[in-house]
Design the sequence.
């Protein structure tokens, strides 16, 4: 049994998994990464600990420390590569592609073996295209929902702190708060649809659009295109990578 960890900018998520499925999991805020030692203290010793980390070196160090103290293991910190599990990376510098995006594409493409567009709605919204041959053609990055709201809050005194999104987005809002929420939601959904349309023209078959990330359920009601809601794409990508032979995975591993 392996421990798979998706360390993101806002949350750290993990699952215990075998070759076929996820068994159990949890999550915590990235800001309290030091609590992982306590959260994992009563768990069985995993065969391997495989990590996708985009939260910086200090977070990776804390995860590594917890794993070392609890189980005397070294973590396998996956990095984006030129080739992985049937995918080819078109980035000019493959290692600069966010590993969370890379793992999500690995999972989505494995599910279909056809063109896919992966939309991740987190701190940033990323939209990535993979063609029918498994080539990652490219993608875009835009501010995520809360990032956009916070930028408006910082940029003008008229916008109060908006901590919850609990109203329908109307193009004719009648308060500043509602107008901000509507503008961000409709702007994001419209931007996503524009990029999906443009990316779809670059492949021969109609791609399946997967949408994931913590804000996906807030954004999906404002989309007019068919999408597949899919949680845990990064963790599923890690499970696929873990299923490859050890020598192949070790090439994706870097030592801190």
Sequence:
């Amino acid at each position: 049994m392996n421990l798979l960890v998706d360390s993101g900018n806002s949350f750290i998520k993990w699952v215990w998994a075998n070759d076929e499925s996820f068994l159990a999991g949890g999550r915590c805020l990235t800001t309290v990464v030091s609590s992982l030692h306590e959260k994992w203290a009563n768990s069985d010793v995993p065969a391997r600990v495989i990590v996708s980390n985009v939260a910086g070196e200090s977070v990776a160090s804390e995860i590594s420390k917890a794993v070392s103290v609890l189980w005397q293991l070294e973590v396998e910190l996956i990095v984006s590569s030129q080739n992985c599990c049937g995918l080819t990376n078109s980035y000019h510098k493959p290692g600069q592609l966010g590993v969370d995006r890379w793992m999500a594409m690995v999972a989505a493409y494995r599910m279909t073996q056809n063109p896919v567009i992966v939309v991740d709605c987190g701190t940033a919204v990323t939209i990535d295209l993979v063609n029918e041959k498994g080539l990652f053609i490219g993608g875009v990055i835009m501010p995520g929902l809360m990032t956009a709201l916070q930028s408006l809050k910082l940029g003008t005194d008229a916008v109060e702190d908006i901590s919850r999104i609990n109203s329908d987005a109307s193009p004719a809002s009648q308060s500043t708060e509602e107008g901000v929420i509507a503008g961000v939601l409709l702007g994001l959904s419209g931007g996503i649809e524009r990029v999906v349309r443009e990316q779809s023209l670059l492949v021969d078959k109609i791609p399946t659009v997967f949408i994931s990330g913590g804000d996906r359920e807030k954004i999906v009601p404002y989309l007019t295109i068919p999408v597949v809601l899919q949680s845990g794409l990064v963790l599923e990508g890690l499970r696929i990578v873990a299923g490859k032979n050890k020598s192949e995975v070790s090439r994706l591993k870097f030592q801190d």
Remarks:
- Residues 41 and 70 are 7 Å apart (CA to CA).
- Residues 176-200 form the longest helix (25 residues).
- The chain has two domains: 2-78, 91-232.
- Confidence is low (pLDDT under 50) at residues 250-256.
